[in-house]
Design goal:
The structure is a homodimer. By secondary structure, the first copy, chain A, is of the alpha/beta class. The first copy, chain A, is 32% helix and 21% strand. Chain A contains 9 helices and 10 strands. In chain A, the strands form 2 sheets. A 6-stranded parallel sheet of chain A has the order 7-6-5-9-8-10, with helices on one face. In chain A, helix 5 (108-120) runs parallel beside helix 6 and helix 5 (108-120) packs parallel to helix 9 (226-239). The longest helix of chain A is centred in the C-terminal third of the chain and has 14 residues, at 226-239. Chain A is elongated.
């Protein structure tokens, strides 16, 4: 049995304000819930329609009916499991390797895809400007496919971080140097800009090297989507 | 003045069945409408709240009120323009260069992003299996950012096409050869598989070379998103 107030509380966590107030977020689906349970992120409570889908059953796992799970869910077609987790403390940014910095990424799908890319390419720290979409937004979590459990995501002022880090700063621009022929350092900060406006002027002035992905199509082509561009640049960094 | 039946007709084009019946589709937003108007795709009718946003005003442009445009729109926040266009005839597949073939891509955002990637990397023909999401779906169009006007998209049986084309066939697999060190032909077919199931067995058996993108993160990492993987592989093909 799930009481109404629990359902109301879980639904409230779909809003960023309530997530911050309570220090908790909601993840849905067995893949992501299981990856979070296997990580350092602490679970508050897990609700599922079938206990057998979990590797381990702990005290805070509760079996619920499909209709109750549906009431808690943000999805049109809820999966069999939903977990409420504590938002982890932001860790130290790992400055021994490349760091990705996002300057006001607004689309949840883009942020989720970039988190998944960082995981694939072994980037441990992702720095997000304060106006970047919240990484505990349900649509971001969905797009990460569980990768969020393995990436240290830090919301902070990017230019402050750049000053403190003393690492070389690369930024993705439309008019930068050809990334294929540029020497890339062993470590650095890669700034990716907002979907519509690109990298802000404030960060452009602290960028050491502007890089671009060569274009092979017609000149009228729109820029690449920011998640596609991140995929290509991280691939260029790691393949060398 | 827009009559009710016009609004009803435009709304109906949000469904694939009605698009096929009428041979028309709807695009929204000045960027994509203007790119379609500049292309070979024929316009049926353009509705906009402000005529000045268009480069040229032709007979089939009609000024409408914001509230009428809102009634036609599939968007929560409609833009100032909406166009009804004729679905173009599928062109000949250009077998003088690389061709991307999509095996049951279901997510509209992924298809839209891949169309945009083809445009960026100068891939002229995109072959889609019959179960791939319709490229005139409003969410696909939105994600293409106008690139759809420049790519020849052909829905057909991929294995039939492979047999006819006699081009070398590459497929993206989790357990393929390292794409960084593989020789790539000057032209070929690149198959990208379904989001959940990957490339079907039917197409796996006609693949000449399986390729993979090396992974640098923990082993537990989920595969890459199919649009990210397409971005990286097209970049590998073109950079050489």
């Amino acid at each position: 049995m799930v009481v109404k107030s629990q359902i109301k509380f879980i639904k409230s966590l779909q809003q960023k304000k309530c997530r911050i107030q309570n220090g908790m977020f909601v993840a849905e689906g067995i893949k992501i819930v299981q990856e979070l349970l296997n990580s350092n992120i602490k679970a508050h409570r897990i609700y599922c329609t079938d206990l057998e889908i979990l590797d381990d059953i702990t005290d805070n796992v509760q079996q619920v009916s499909e209709s109750d799970l549906k009431k808690m869910s943000s999805l049109k077609t809820p999966s069999a499991i939903l977990g409420v987790f504590y938002i982890p403390k932001q860790g130290e940014i790992d400055c021994t390797d490349w760091v990705v910095a996002l300057d006001d990424i607004r689309d949840p799908g883009n942020l989720g895809t970039i988190i998944r890319l960082c995981d694939w390419f072994g980037i441990h720290s992702l720095v997000c400007s304060p106006y970047t979409v919240d990484c505990y937004n349900p649509k971001v979590l969905q797009a990460t496919m569980g990768s969020i459990a393995r990436i240290n995501i830090v919301y902070t002022d990017i230019s402050d971080f750049i000053k403190r880090s003393k690492m070389p700063v690369y930024g993705a621009f439309m008019d930068g140097l050809n990334i294929y022929s540029e020497n890339l350092q062993k470590k650095g900060i890669l700034i990716m800009g907002n979907e519509a406006k690109g990298i802000s002027q404030e960060l452009e002035v602290v960028t050491d090297k502007k890089v671009s992905i060569p274009q092979f199509g017609a000149n009228s082509t729109e820029s690449l989507n920011v998640a596609s561009a991140t995929a290509i640049i991280l691939n260029e960094i790691r393949r060398r």
